[in-house]
Amino acid sequence: MPRDPRQIQLEIDAARESLAATLDQLTHRTSPKRLRAKGQEAVVRWLQTPAGMATAGAVGLFVTFVVVQRVRHRND
Predict the structure, then answer these.
(1) 57 — phi, psi (to 5°)?
(2) What distance, in Å, lies between the first and last C-alpha atoms of the chain?
(3) pLDDT tens readout for residues 26-62
């Protein structure tokens, strides 16, 4: 029994709409601005933890040490 062309067209249209919605979701999920914002939020949350604070303090101390050493050696 052959299928009705109108029914086939309706199924094609429904599939097209479903694919378009899926593509819109993927576009939203992989948006560079959105991914950057999520990354920044994650870093800020981590920096507020004890481990994050300790790491930031250690990095700050290390950078200060390197800068002081370079300034001292530049003047020699």
Answers:
(1) -65, -40
(2) 94
(3) 999 999 999 999 999 999 999 999 999 999 999 999 9
CA dist list (Å): 50 to 38, 42, 59: 21, 15, 14
The whole-angstrom distance between residue 74's C-alpha and the CA centroid of its chain comes to 40
Residue the block writes with tokens 């694919």: 19
Q: State the Cα torsion 9-14-18-20 to the nearest 10°.
A: 50
Dist CA 58 CA 2 (whole Å): 74
CA separation, residue 66 to residues 60, 62, 72 (Å): 10, 6, 10
HEC secondary structure over the chain: CCCCHHHHHHHHHHHHHHHHHHHHHHHHHCCHHHHHHHHHHHHHHHHCCHHHHHHHHHHHHHHHHHHHHHHHHHCC
